[in-house]
Amino acid sequence: MPTVYLSSNPSISAYCPPLKPKQQEVSKAYFAKREEDAQYKTAIKDHTTKAGETLSKIAKKYNVDTKDVKRTKTTKYLQVGEIVKVTAKEKTGVKVKFTKLDKATVGEDVYIVIETLHLEEETVIVNVLQGQEDVLSKKDALVTVQQDNQDVTQIKTTVGNYCNQQHVTNKDEFVNWAIAKVKLQPKAEAKQNAWKDGLECAGEKKAFLYLLVDVHSENSIPNFKSQYILYKGYKGGKDDSNVPNHFLNEEGAWFEVTNIKWYNPVKNPQLRGHYSIWAPERSIHSKNIKGRSKGKHDGLDLYAPEGTPLYATVDGEIYDPYISGSYGNTLTIKGKYNNKTYYFFYAHLRDKVTYKSKDKVKAGDVIGYSGKTGKSAKNLKANQVHLHFEIRTEGTRTGNRVNPVSVVSELKRDLITNPKKEDQI
Length: 425
Description:
The chain is mainly β. The chain has helices at 55-61, 189-200, 404-407, 409-417; strands spanning 3-6, 9-15, 25-48, 69-71, 83-100, 103-105, 109-117, 123-131, 145-147, 150-152, 155-158, 177-183, 207-216, 230-231, 246-247, 255-258, 300-303, 309-311, 316-318, 323-324, 328-337, 340-349, 360-361, 366-369, 386-392, 401-402. The chain contains four helices and 26 strands. The strands form six sheets. Strands 17, 19, 20, 21, 22, 23, 25 and 26 form an eight-stranded antiparallel β-sheet that branches. Strands 3, 4, 5, 7, 12 and 14 form a six-stranded mixed β-sheet that branches. Strands 6, 8, 11, 13, 15 and 16 form a six-stranded mixed β-sheet that branches.
């Protein structure tokens, strides 16, 4: 058994069981997506019936089925003042899971997960670096991403930081994890363009990334040195680097960034001077066209001579194609952009849509041709024919429109870099 001596008086000693030191360790580091599963508890509430209420109206008020509303009286009809028992689910939080990612698209929100042991509440600094070959940056150079809406090359987080997320019901599972949310895209437009150019010019090269992890534990051990931490990033064999705190820097283990799989609905899109862009509070048309009514305009009018091919913007499925009195032949694609589901709406198509709901389309597929169908477009001159294009967050015919130029960075870039004199942005 080892002998322990009193530091102030070495003559005093005692025997003790063998020591079992806790090795501080960074076990894994990787990019991940966050998934959540809502957690509920059942609660029974008393509701006092008011005049004009029915069981179905009460159920709708509490967002439950009618069967979850029970009467307490045996009279034939529901009475004013009667107490009914409403069985409702109350959300208690979400159960969170982080799943390792091998790739993601430019502009996507992802999480960097650092799994550790015996490093609770320690600061973790992470750099994202370019792997294998030059694409987004020079090989082994820093790559700029966004954290908290700011451009960073040094990502800071803390071990156990997710334990502060009160709405997460399984937060204790992450007591030894440091987790940071980042956007895979610089905020500065010039840097965004450099990324796009790098990906477009890469050819067969891939935009592989890896992680450099540095844990500072100077507050937990006197005379701390970084070598006291065991980094398990280096495995040997086919590794591209023998640096222990490099993670994913290995053949077959890199994290890949791919370009946004987006096609503009019209090639070389142009905004004409006599059409408004997204302008819910402005006139539909500018004063250049006389006699036009004023009102909301919840989309983009993209100049497209009649018969111009129109393209599926993203991979997705056809949603509710229909003929509108004002929009004429319409088509909607339900799909994802930047990891969010949107509904991409096309109006004034030349031909009746032959797609059916749930038909699959791929980004870049020709899904129709520009026309001037519908009441609001039938009297247009040849040089005024356009595609009316909207992006919605809800799958309804009135939608919940969002500004297409703000949502789609590719569309914004092309509209700005391909202007005409009369264009307005």
